[in-house]
Structure of AIG1-type G domain-containing protein:
Amino acid sequence: MTSSQNEMRVVLIGRTGNGKSSTGNSLLHSRSAFHATQSGQSITKDCKPGRYQHTDTYGQQKTLTVVDTPGFFDTNTAITNEAVEKKIASQIFEMTTPGVHAFLIITRVGRFTPEEKNTVDFIRHIFGPDAIKYCIVVITGEDQLEEGQNLDEFINTSPALRDLVQACGNRRFGINNKLSGQPLERKTNQLIEIIDRMIRNNNGSYYTNDEYQRIERKRQEEKRKKEENERRQKKAEEDAVVARVPKSFLLY
Ligand SMILES: Nc1nc2c(ncn2[C@@H]2O[C@H](COP(=O)(O)OP(=O)(O)O)[C@@H](O)[C@H]2O)c(=O)[nH]1
Ligand SMILES: [Mg+2]
């Protein structure tokens, strides 16, 4: 098993207030890894990673990295500006190198707006056309579904949401982040299983592109230079010790 199979890197994307930070906390078994807020205001303009050691039903461990993002796709805010978009994209690249296993498009029961359908275009624009194969629509506020309504019935009430789910290969998941303990754990385990299944359908691999490969090459080059410097420094120190030893000693 390669180390990449022991890792799962997930990015949360969606409008502010849709439940990104809450879903991130649920996945990380934490209440405070990310700051969730009632106000619907975007708190930070930076991405943030969180980590959790996940054990699956077979006892296999993997490091789950979740990257929370600011409201990438908020309308009418400065965040949609090209420069900010680029900055957030570069943070996502840095935090998920060498690639992303899953983009979770977070939407919310009762809050879905038709413009959110454009999220897939943003993802294509930033990450490339194939990134869509790594997307799952996660609908938070499952507790707010109407009495007797299931998730698919809810999805079918909005043609735009149905289109979004279809664009994501019908991969969708409902979650209530207000749950806690075992019921919440069952939910997050199900979500991780869906991600695992998607990874298997994507030839067991994560999404990567030229930008990731450039960052990875840069990292490898920096690592090589650091090791080379350490080697040089060690050699210089050893030479200095030898130089300090009286010559007569070295003869014997
Ligand atoms: N009822 C309910 N509220 C939720 C759920 N998920 C998130 N929230 C609430 O929705 C609000 C916005 O959530 P937050 O995670 O900050 O959204 P973000 O802006 O996308 O990061 C907070 O008050 C959360 O407590 C959910 O599944 N059910
Ligand atoms: Mg948030």
Remarks:
- The chain has two domains: 3-208, 213-251.
